[in-house]
Amino acid sequence: MFLELSLAFDRISKRWIRPARRRFSWLDWLCNKAATLSYLLFGEAGTSLKTLTDATARKQAFLAQQQAMSRALAPGTAASCFSWDAPTLTSSRLCDVNEFQVPEIYEQLLALGFDPTDIHRKNWEKAAVAFLVEHFGYFDDQSAGLGLGVAKESLLYLLSNHCGWIVGIDLYQPVFCDGAGMTCEEVYASAPFPYRRERLEIVAMDMRSIDFPDATFDFVWSVSSVEHVNSIDELITVFRHIERVLKPGGHAFITTEWNRVSQNPVYAPGAILFDEVLYPYLLSRLDNLRPLTPLHLRQPYHPDHFFAQKWTTSTGLEMRPCVNLFSYGTFITPVLLILRKALQNA
Questions:
Q1: β-bridge partners, 257
Q2: Which strand (E) or helix (H) includes residue 257?
Q3: So what's the pLDDT on residue 323?
């Protein structure tokens, strides 16, 4: 209910409050104070005045970044990036629990070794990516795929059973001591099911500095990793590398976190949350990587969409299925972005 009210207020704000704020300075001041109070009450509340002051300063800095990005966009650019129509399985879209029962996604959940009744955001992200890799014809012994920030996710092993060459990169030890917490050899040994070892290559590499030649891969994927950089500039760098290493006509299947309250931006180090300004701004900074479809912002109803990660019961705090979370002081949900590199001379 709180999520629904927050989203409703956000829509009302876009239609009525923002234009009025331009005319009445006192309303602008009041809205800023209300936003700050809401952030402190429901966001990263601290235990000291300094903590609260720092949180407010960060919030204002994020808002300033968002406003600067918005000003840099040509009129109408943002609106053209989105749709409120019903999405399909090949649309860029928000996470939808209803898809757990769709045969194409259900089949991939089983192939990845997941219980389809385990309604969890990460399971949907991986199954959706696996479906897209197959749907676009990359289940082929000649195809090459690159995974970013993959740790030991089951997609590595599933794709190596269907594709010609799969490369997974992450900040693995011992090359990077603050990396994924495992060695490359441990990744090879962590498969939950048999796989074609000769088709899989695990490399310790930073996704902000991908060391592969141009036009090497048919597809690139990433599951909830690209947001874990230190700045918007670093995020753009990651996507420029994706654009560079993709072959013309190749696809990028990227899942990340979507901030459902657009007036509460979060661009903190390690948590660059996508929103209705950052996404079109990022696209505007790329030359040949374009969305296959508009991003569908409609999330069809399902009661599990509103479960928290933890649910209070009579026996205490228990883990429950989750899709939407209250995290980083705002509501977030997984988003799937389907991008395609333009053909040469197109």
A1: 334
A2: strand 246-259
A3: 81
d(CA 290, CA 338): 9
Distances 76 to 19, 82, 206, 264, 265 between C-alpha atoms, Å: 17, 11, 35, 22, 20
CA 231/CA 63 separation, integer angstroms: 14
Any idea what DSSP says for residue 120?
B
The residue segments making up the domain with residue 187 are 80-341
Q: What is the pTM of this model?
A: 0.83
For residues 75-89, average pLDDT: 94
Q: CA 182, CA 189: separation in Å to the nearest integer?
A: 11
How many separate domains does the chain show? 2
42 with 115, same domain: the answer is no
Beta carbons of 246 and 219 less than 8 angstroms apart: yes
Q: Using CA atoms, how far apart are residues 215 and 257, in angstroms rounded to an integer?
A: 27
Residue 53 lies in a domain: yes
Looking at the structure, tell me whether residues 295 and 276 fall in a common domain. yes
In a domain, 131, yes or no: yes
pLDDT tens for 182-208 read 899 999 999 999 999 999 999 999 999
**Alpha-carbon span 235 to 226, nearest angstrom:** 7
In eight-state DSSP terms, residue 179 is S
